[in-house]
Amino acid sequence: MDIVGLVQDPSAWVALVTLVVMEVVLGIDNLIFISILTNKLPVEHRDRARKIGIGLALAMRLALLGTVAWIVQLTIPVFQVFGQGFSWKDMILIGGGLFLVWKATKEIHHNVDPQEQGEDFIASSTTTSFASAIGQILLLDLVFSIDSIITAVGMTPHLPIMFIAVIAAVTVMLVAANPLANFIERNPSIVMLALAFLLMIGTTLIAEGMGVHVPKGYIYTAMAFSALVEVLNMLARNRRKRASGGH
User: What is the C-alpha to C-alpha distance for residues 172 and 215, in angstroms, rounded to an integer?
Assistant: First the structure.
């Protein structure tokens, strides 16, 4: 179907809106990781690192869309273990999940016991820190991009719709990056919640890679509920502060 046909097809518009929403939701995971990681950098480098990280996410998604036939082949099993087939997609998801679990666990330990930091996951020098952050963002961009594109391929056969949805989703990420990162930095309790989200997302990626499908709706419902509880806690803390200040 050509571009004119797509524009005139109501089902194509429904697919576009649905896919944009799905891509934005999937991008939340990527954005949380970028926000936490860049907040570890010196202030003057954070904004540039976020823009580079999100720019890499867009470039990677668009490049992968150009190789849809190859992406689809990533779901074909290449070997079996105890009767369970593993594809390249599965191995990428498992590797990314293990990385997220390790990263979140290490950061949680650092936040709980800052006196025993040991070797931080970002080196102390500014140059090395920036390079390390970009490298880690690039690694997770790859994992989330492959998951995102395979989801898009499963929802619509039309490449123009996929391109528009990916660009729209990454644009939302770009707009939301600084406000989200600043919000996380201003509210230390949110950092722990975000790290818990990353731990859950990493575990889910490992499960998906092992062939255990976890409905995304359950994951995002749990994240939304946890975020709502934390918002209520923040409101309660602010109210107590105002009450104690008044007395």
Answer: 24
Alpha helix (H) ranges present in the chain? 3-8, 10-38, 43-65, 68-73, 88-112, 126-155, 159-186, 188-209, 216-246
Phi, psi of 214 (to 5 degrees): -110, 115
Contacts of 103 (CB under 8 A, 6+ apart): 33, 121, 136, 198, 202
Q: What is the DSSP letter of 41?
A: S
Record the tokens describing residue 43, joined without a space: 């202030």
* DSSP letter (8 states) at residue 74: T
Give me the phi and psi of 86, to 5 degrees please.
Answer: -125, 125
> pLDDT per residue over 104-140, tens digit each?
888 888 777 766 544 443 334 444 478 888 888 888 8
pLDDT in tens, 203-239: 888 988 888 888 877 887 888 888 888 888 888 888 8
How many residues in the chain? 247
The neighbour count for residue 39, using CB atoms within 10 Å, is 18
Distance CA 193, CA 218 (A): 17
Contact between 38 and 53 (Cβ < 8 Å): yes
Quick check: 74 and 150 in contact, CB under 8 A? yes
* Tokens representing residue 107 in the block: 């950061």
Counts of helices then strands in the chain (DSSP H, E): 9, 2
